[in-house]
Each structure stands twice: as C-alpha cells, then as structure tokens.
Design brief:
The protein is an alpha/beta fold and about 475 residues long. It is about 50% helix and about 10% strand. It has 21 helices and eleven strands. The strands form four sheets. Strands 6-7-10-11 form a four-stranded parallel beta sheet, covered by helices on one side. It has a three-stranded parallel beta sheet with strand order 1-2-4. It has a two-stranded parallel sheet with strand order 3-5. The longest helix has 22 residues. The two termini are about 45 Å apart.
C-alpha cells in the first residue's frame, strides 16, 4: 500500500517539523497559479475525456519516459507515437510495462507526483506494480468516463485559478479561439514563445520567417519589419490572455548590435548562409529585442536557459522533440545578460524571470543579480531540479542574497495535467519546511513565516506575472 503521510517532506527534527506542520494548513488549500506550463490547450478547448490511463500518465511525460529509456525500454513498447506512423503499443500494454518498471522511480520526484495523483484523482492507494497494473488501469479508465475527470472539472478540483499554455509564434491559436468564444480565456491563457522565428539553428528557420511575415503582414526582410512582426504577434497573443513571453535558449547570451550589423545578420539567416556562431548571435540580439518590446507592452519575459536539447538524434528523427533527451549545461548569466541589462535593465516596465538548469549559478550569479537589478527575478527550480531536494538547494542558495520577494513563486512547467496539484503541494511543503527550520533557529518569527509561506505559495506568482 502507498500511503501519503501527512508529514511527508517536512523536516525530521524538532522544532522544525512541528512548525512546518503548523504553517502548512494556511497554504495547503490556496488556489493554484500556474503561469507557465505545457499542457495541451486542446484539453481545455474541447473538454473531452482522456483516452486512457497511459495517455494521461505516461506518453506525455518526458520525466517518466527518459527513466524508462535509460533502462533500455523501447518507446514503441511504451506507446509513444512515431513520426512515420508505424504502430506502437496500445494503452494497456504500455501501462503494464510501465507498472512492471515502476520500482525504477524510487527516490525520484516522478514517483512523488504519480503517487499523489493516483490518490488525489482516483482514490488509489495501492502501489503500482505488475500485480496491481490491470486493476489500477481499470479504475482510472472507468473514472475517466465520468464528468468529474474532464479537464475543466480537474481544474476545479485542483483549485486552479489561472493556467497558461505555451504556443509558438506561428501557432494559429485555434484552441484559444475556441475558448475565447465560450468565455474561458483568462482562466486558461496562452504564452508567446517565438523560438520558431528567433532561433536560426532550427532547420526550417527560413520558411518560418517567411511565414511569419505573411502571417503579420510585415516585411521581415528588414530588421524593423521583423521587430514589427513580433510587436504585431505579441498583441494578438495578448488577446488570448497572454501576460508573458518565453524563450528557450541554449545560453543566456544577449547582444546589442548596431543596426547595420543586425540587418547583415538577418540577411545571412534569410539566405541560409548562417553558421552556428551566427545563430548564437542572432538569438542573443533577439533576446535584447524581446526585452525592449516588453518595456513597450509590459509582457513579462521568461528566459529558460541552459538546456542542450534533443541530444539523441535517433529519437528526434523517430519521434520529434521533448521526449527526454535534453541535458543541462553550464551557463554564464553575468556576462550573458550584460548587453540586455545594460540596455534596459533599469526600465521600470521590464520584468525578466530567469529559469536555470546550472545550479552552480544560484548563489554565485543569479541571487546577487536579482538582489540588485529591479527588472530581474529568479524563477522556481526548473525541470531537473523541481524536486524536494532541488527546492531545498534553491532556497538555501538564493534567499540570503536575493530575499524572498525577488523570487517568482512557483509554477509547475508540466505537460502532465494531474501532476500540477502534486507539484504545487511539494513546493508548499518544502517552503513550510524551510521556514520551519528558520523559525526554529529564531531567524524569523512565526508570524513572518506565515506571511512568507502564503506569499511564495500563491501571491508571488500573481505578482511576478502581473496577473490581476
């Protein structure tokens, strides 16, 4: 039997455990603010049932898939769709394989999230295993046919106040158009992610830029036309609730080139004559341009830096991106952000939230930077580090220099819908544990700890993303 202990993740020692236990009820049932994530907008536009348990827990979750692949399991056998359309395992067979290997997840945040989700959504307390696989599958499958497990009902059950999806610049936003027609934009909203037209390392960059010009009616062959196209598209995304932009970049590099050099760089990209150094410089310049546009329109800028993406060419060719082969790399934020911050870091309308995979930069770079620049905030632990230990390391390294109020609160950054309440619960428990230790050491008062716990669990994300 799995059992979600009421004191899970709290400090083991006293008085910190008792203080964390006392703080937690004040935050446990606060609404969820989910200002950055990758859930499928079709779920909320159509509000239809999930097809089967594997489609809910397994195939959309690269955290789960990468662990199984690391032990030699085939993505075909796990039911992950192929680009060539060849058949893959159906849901129950994939689920049985997942259950037979569930022991691999001991000690990982994935197990914490899945165990929480099984109990929270379905009342399942049995450990997933070969012996329980079919019974658990049948329980989930039956529940998915009920109104209580439709996407909007799940948002209600989780007390989700706001949830943001993430779409590329060329996305037609058809699902958001549908939600606009029925009045659900606001609770569900989009985020502008222009990587498809700002990253020349993408094979289709020339075609993408041409389509971008056609979509916006701008001449993207000129630098001013390209920036106007972004200005136009950002305004369109705001119609569907967008308050933020997001940029997935391999480095934190920014640039502030003279106009003649910017135009020459664009000319090379449009002609397909750019190399890796040109691609890096183009991305760097576009980060500064996006910051300047945020100064204009007030959209919060998110930079997700430091992921070496799609490192397995075979997996990418077979099935596409975002399936587990991304690896963190070292990142230099002080030098990388120098050009951007030098140009507009003191602008009161700029808010830049940094998400980092290189934990060595927290205390050395990001906390001191956020502790000075009024435009810079530190995002919560991300991807490989949105875990109990990752949250502990994060708070230990950033708070003493950046304080609590230069942190952007929490967001779940997930493709797996049912993991959202689980992830927020882990954050809230870890915040209460951290504050419990500080109260126990007489570093802050219990009253201050209550205020900070509520802030970091709810209000910080609303404030950081300017959500009204």
């Amino acid at each position: 039997m799995t059992h979600l202990h009421p004191d899970r993740l709290f400090p083991a020692s006293e008085p910190a455990q008792s203080i964390a236990r006392e703080l937690y009820p004040d935050v446990a049932n606060l609404p969820l603010i989910c200002p950055h994530g990758h859930t499928d907008p079709a779920w909320f536009a159509n509000n239809t049932r999930f097809s089967d348990p594997a489609a809910l827990f397994l195939t959309p979750d690269h955290y789960v898939l990468r662990m199984l692949r690391s032990r030699g399991l085939s993505y075909d056998d796990l039911g992950v769709p192929r680009r060539d359309g060849k058949p893959v395992a159906e849901g129950r067979a994939a689920w049985r394989l997942f259950a037979a290997n569930y022991h691999l997840f001991a000690g990982t945040p994935s197990k914490t999230w899945i165990d929480h989700s099984l109990q929270w959504a379905f009342g399942i307390e049995q450990e997933l295993s070969p012996a329980t696989a079919d019974a658990i599958y049948d329980t989930i499958d039956a529940a998915l046919a009920t109104p209580e497990l439709l996407p909007h009902a799940l948002l209600d059950k989780a007390r989700v106040e706001v949830i943001a999806t993430t779409e590329f610049a060329l996305d037609p936003l058809v699902h958001h158009q549908k939600m606009e027609a029925v009045g659900t934009i606001g609770r569900v909203r989009t985020t502008y992610r222009p990587d498809d037209v700002t990253d020349p390392s993408r094979p289709a960059i020339v075609d993408n830029l041409q389509r971008f010009g056609e979509l916006t009616g701008e001449n993207v062959a000129t630098w001013s036309g390209l920036i106007n196209a972004h200005r136009n598209r950002r305004e369109y995304f705001r119609r569907f609730g967008a308050v933020a932009t997001d940029h997935g970049v391999p480095s934190a590099n920014t640039a502030d080139l003279p106009l003649i050099e910017r135009q020459a760089l664009l000319d090379k990209v449009l002609a397909g004559r750019h190399d890796a150094a040109d691609a890096e410089l183009f991305r760097a310049q576009m980060m500064t341009e996006m910051a300047l546009l945020s100064v204009e329109d007030g959209m919060v800028m998110q930079m997700h830096a430091g992921s070496r993406r799609n490192t397995d060419p075979l997996l990418f060719a077979e099935r596409g991106p975002d399936l587990g082969a991304d690896i963190p790399g070292t990142t230099d934020y002080v030098n990388g952000l120098r050009a951007l911050l030098g140009r507009c870091g003191n602008e009161p309308n700029l808010r830049l939230i940094m998400f980092v995979l290189d934990e060595t930069t927290y205390a050395r770079e990001l906390a001191p930077m956020a502790g000075y620049w009024p435009s810079l905030m530190i995002g919560p632990p991300w991807w490989f580090h949105d875990s109990p230990q990752g949250i502990r390391r994060y708070l230990d390294q950033v708070v003493e220099t950046a304080g609590f109020y230069n942190l952007a609160g929490f967001n779940d950054d997930t493709r797996a819908l049912l993991s959202i309440p689980a992830r927020h619960d882990v954050w809230r428990r870890e915040v209460c544990g951290f504050l419990g230790r500080w109260v126990g050491e007489n570093r802050i008062t219990k009253s201050t700890a209550r205020d900070i716990a509520k802030h970091l669990s709810y209000q910080a994300a609303k404030d950081a993303y300017r959500i009204k």
